[in-house]
Design a protein that fits this description.
The protein has helices spanning 26-34, 40-54, 60-64, 100-109, 130-154, 164-176, 181-188, 193-197, 205-214, and strands at residues 71-72, 75-78, 94-97. The chain is mainly alpha-helical. The model has no long low-confidence stretch (mean pLDDT 88). The chain is globular.
Length: 219
Amino acid sequence: GREYYPFGRRKYQPPHTKKVKKALDRTQLKKLFECKPLTEQQEKAKDFWFLSFACNAMNIKDILYLQCKHFVDEKIVFYREKTKNTSKNELKPIVVYLNEYAKSIINKYGNFDQSSDSFVFDVLKNSMDEKSKKYATKNFTRMINQNLQKLCRNNELPNSISTIWARHSLTTNSIRKGASMEMIQEILGHANIKTTQGYFAGFDDQVKKELIENSMDFN
């Protein structure tokens, strides 16, 4: 009976499950990168989101805690804030190689005419106590998220975007381009590869489709 043949008119419809992805694909990244911010705040939000993306998907807290001494020969060498209480013997510093884009944003907002312990970006000050630093970091992150969401809404991009999407987007797009999970683990500074896998949104349906379509080509 033809009615049981799954590729005919009455195709089997599998139940639809929707997994929320927090990664922008290559086309969306290009669109966001090229879109025009409408306000200074939107421009700043976009700049810092892409700075995070370009710097090993460094989180905003680590970016704001960068001091002049962390910049060494065209790269940043630092310890993640969330691992600061771990014994230094067990810690590996994160090394971020700066591309031209990252350098341009750091030059745009950063200040290096200070002592080596000074913060590069003017959000945090050495005179602040830890509570004030935490509050300032939270406020700055909220500013990025709110303005980025407005920018995305204006440009038909996912408006649930936030700073954490930079990490998911870098991981996903790098692996789709051929980087190994181990390399991304090292770039993100994860002790466990399972953490890295959690940031990967999977392969594009189109990529999987092409792989299978080409699998019968033995030439």
